[in-house]
Amino acid sequence: MELDLTATHLLAGLGVALTLGLVWRAGARRARAAADKARGGSRLLSLMGRVVAMSGVIVGVQWIVITYRASTPVLLVVLGLPALFAAYTVTRALTVTTSDVQRRRGDRR
C-alpha cells in the first residue's frame, strides 16, 4: 500500500496536532486554576467555622456573667478581654504586610 502525502496534507496534520496540544495544555491550566480556587475557598470556610464557634463561646461566657450579675471588675474583664482580642485580630487582618502572590517559573517580578 502506497501513501501519497502532499505538503498540504503534512501541514494540515501538523496544524491539527498543534491545536490538540494547545487545547490540552489550556485544559490543564484551567483545571489547575480551578483547584487553586477551590483550595482557597475551603481555607476560608474552615476559618469562618472556627470564628463562629469561638464567638459562640465568648458570647456564652459573657451571657452567663451578665445573667448572674457578677461584680464590676469581673464584668469588665469578661467584656473587655474579648474586645481586645477582636480589635487585635481585625487590625491584623486589615493590615497588609506581605503579598501572597504565587510566582510561576521564570517570573522575575
From TrEMBL:
The chain crosses the membrane at residues 6-26, 47-68, 74-95. Keywords: Membrane, Transmembrane, Transmembrane helix. This is Uncharacterized protein. It comes from Actinoalloteichus fjordicus.
